[in-house]
Amino acid sequence: MQYLFLFTSLALMSFGAGGIRPCSLAFAADQINNPKNPKNARIMKSFFNWYYVSVGVSVMFSVVFIVYIQVKAGWIIGFGIPVGLMLFSSVMFFLGSFMYVKVKPNKTLLAGFAQVIVASWKNRHLTLPPHANNSGLWYFHSGSNLVQPTDKARFLNKACIIKNREKDIDSNGMPTDPWSLCTVRQVEELKAVIKVLPIWSTGITIAITISQQSFSVVQAGTMNRMVHNFEIPSTSYGAFGILTLTIWVAIYDRIIVPLLTKYTKKGKGLTLKQRMGIGIAISCLATLVAALVEKKRRNEAIREGFIDNPKGVVNMSAMCIAVAFFALGFGTGNLVASIIVKVVKIGTQRGGEVSCWAYGSVEDIKNWDEEEVDTKCDEEEHI
């Protein structure tokens, strides 16, 4: 019966996270997105930076204070506080619903992608028309600003070729068979996602690195965690990375970008690709530091005679783990926000749908990969 309640609660948490995580970022962006504002791009970049600052502050609060309460006061109070906070946030969310910008729902992107793929395959024997003066051969909705597909991934363009206008389009201007004829916008949306995939995939690796905090909890439990007269809970060391991420993103947005703007006269700071590259490089460095710390800890445990005592505490400060978290927080602060901004810039013309889908998929895939990493490490540990 206890397992039934446990698994039911975990399932409910998963359902809730599945609704919040993919939608919160896109919904928040809808509230401030204004394409008519000439400074909209800069405002959106700043928003994504500060979004992750707020996430960092909240996660740091939970890792430090909630974990400490769980250790000192027990699991009932430790879980009760998040329940109360979620109830409070739900009430506040509904109270403010009358002020929200509500973007009208559109059909799912995935169905549109499938239609483009099927239609392009059905029309694979068609010859692409010449590029110039052929807008009448492409299918698009009235008022659309996309009336002609781009030359990239041209094989997909066959999905929006009108073969016979009388047979392919009904009296309302809609395709008689959406699996044989798609709009130019549908084709360009799929191209945008294909273009985003390499950028999107870079987040998987660093997400796996971030998820390995469970190893650090085990490490810290076998090391000296005393700082003066205070013992840091082993589960709270992840706060160092979150603190670094939060501080770095805030400093970058409010100090570094204005300084770079002053000297480069471009008003953008580092490019998104530069920030992503820095983030990937620093995350690799963080993993290297973590490996060196673990090597030293294992050697120290063997030297002190704890080879058969996995719970033995070695004479080594657990603050060594914090160094890896500092580097990881710095790398994450550069990479994750840049990925989201780049995805939105390339693939979003419909209220952030591509960005939220890609971000949620990164989270899902890194969890699957994390399980594989954990399994491999367990196998190595038993050899």
TrEMBL record:
Cytoplasm among keywords: no
GO cellular-component term (any): membrane
Subcellular location: Membrane
Family: Belongs to the major facilitator superfamily. Proton-dependent oligopeptide transporter (POT/PTR) (TC 2.A.17) family.
Signal sequence region: 1-19
Pfam families: PTR2 (PF00854)
InterPro entries: MFS_trans_sf (IPR036259), POT_fam (IPR000109)
Keywords, in A-Z order: Membrane, Signal, Transmembrane, Transmembrane helix
Transmembrane segments: 50-69, 76-101, 236-255, 276-293, 313-341
GO molecular function, one term: transmembrane transporter activity
Stated name of the protein: Putative peptide/nitrate transporter
Membrane topology: Multi-pass membrane protein
